[in-house]
Design goal:
By secondary structure, the chain is of the alpha/beta class. It is 19% helix and 25% strand. The strands form four sheets. The chain has a six-stranded mixed beta sheet with strand order 2-3-14-13-17-11, with no helix packed on it. It has a five-stranded parallel beta sheet with strand order 6-1-7-8-9. Strands 10, 12, 15, 16 and 18 form a five-stranded antiparallel beta sheet that branches.
Length: 389
């Protein structure tokens, strides 16, 4: 088997809710999520990495979240995560996902099996999944079983012991197979001062899944890890005359202003970006991206790039949508300084003449000090349809 250099712009992810939750969709919108580790890897790689998805209300058999018949994830693309699935159910979906175009895939499997399957059964199924992908010529990044809090898996219990053993088997499997690697997300997730290998405080919303700060930590580590596996992309440079022209430059920038300095002084504020935006035509697919410089601030609850189709039946596409708990409370963003690129999922423009709208949405805790965010390299461009036949 030859070892190839995979495309950074088409990273696939496969697994359970830990994967699906990188994106959230409904009938009118699609977003990358601030609780998504892949979402943060895309941001913190400054847009070099991308797991493309697009809105799709379809319900393929075997892809229903939590095995609820008729329920849609509301997206297609390279996020192959389905919540609630055991490893055998993930294995059954391989023929369909292998019809998609990607070179590198990150695999999570087995976390939902721990209470009902033996360690050997879980390890064997994980190995079969990876083997099928390797045989198809893919580069595979295998994820260990993600550590849970003792409220989910009791201290000293069988689940924690099985997870440790399975994770050792994964290391040995990767060492014996070309194009297979292990990314240990637990190294950014687990508190080394804890007695039982639990997530850092605040990293999880329920002891199993990611909160925003946990996703940030794992995404930052993943962006750095993939630097040695995928090509390094040059910085985006915007020319003033690289503007949309239906005849000569139909892929040109639809925005007229490429930068903005935003100051948020209230709890929630939407800052319009891009100046005078151009409408490229009904049925066009568009995508927005910008770079942000975010200072250290302890009261940030949301920083999102939102692309809105102003048509009567238009939808929205959001980069880094904030994460709310079941009670509606926002989970905080990292308090440290960070910079990166916010890229929305692609959006198909519905019938209408009003140009799309682009916003930087910022949410702060009530009573917090203002925050100043520098936004640069603003792009809104038409692109080819992401829908594959």
């Amino acid at each position: 088997m030859s070892v190839s250099l995979p495309r950074a712009s088409r990273i696939a992810v496969l697994g359970t809710s830990l994967v699906q939750q990188n994106h959230i969709g409904d009938a009118t919108s699609l977003a990358t999520s601030a609780r998504g580790w892949m979402s943060w890897a895309e941001v913190l790689s400054h847009g070099r990495l991308c797991c493309p998805v697009h809105h799709d209300p379809g319900v393929p058999p075997g892809w229903e979240p939590s095995n609820r018949p008729g329920v849609s994830r509301f997206f297609s693309g390279l996020n192959f995560g389905v919540s609630g699935q055991k490893a055998i159910e993930i294995e059954r979906r391989l023929p369909r996902l292998l019809q998609s175009d990607f070179d590198l895939i990150i695999v999570d499997a087995g976390t939902n099996d721990m209470l009902v399957e033996t360690r050997q059964t879980i390890a064997d199924t994980r190995a079969r999944i990876v083997s099928v992908l390797l045989d198809a010529g893919k580069t595979v990044i295998l994820l260990p079983i993600l550590a849970r809090g003792i409220g989910k898996w009791p201290a000293g219990g069988a689940e924690r012991a099985k997870a440790h053993w399975i994770n050792r088997q994964s290391i040995e499997f990767a060492a014996d197979h070309a194009n297979c690697h292990v990314f240990d997300w637990n190294s950014a997730w687990v508190d080394p001062e804890g007695e039982f290998g639990e997530p850092y405080p605040g990293y999880s919303d329920d002891g199993t899944h990611f909160a925003v700060t946990g996703a940030f930590a794992v995404g930052k580590l993943l962006a750095n890890y993939l630097q040695t596996i995928v090509p390094r992309a040059p910085a985006r440079i915007l020319a003033r005359d690289d503007r949309f022209d239906k005849v000569n430059n139909p892929a040109g920038n639809l925005a007229s202003d490429f930068s903005a300095l935003t100051v948020t002084e209230m709890r929630e504020q939407s800052h319009r970006l891009g100046g005078q935006l151009v409408h490229p035509g009904t049925g066009s697919w568009v995508e927005a991206i910008c770079d942000v410089e975010v200072p250290a601030h302890s009261d940030v609850l949301g920083i999102s790039l939102r692309l809105k189709d102003a048509a009567a039946e238009g939808q929205e596409a959001v980069a880094l949508a904030p994460f709310r708990g079941e009670d509606g409370t926002f989970f905080p963003f990292p308090a440290t300084q960070w910079s990166g690129a916010l890229r929305t999922p692609s959006l198909k423009l519905r019938a209408g003449e009003a140009p799309p709208e682009l916003f930087l949405d910022v949410i702060l805790r009530p009573g917090s000090r203002p925050i100043e965010i520098d936004v640069t390299r603003i792009e809104l461009r038409p692109l080819s349809s992401p829908v594959r036949p």
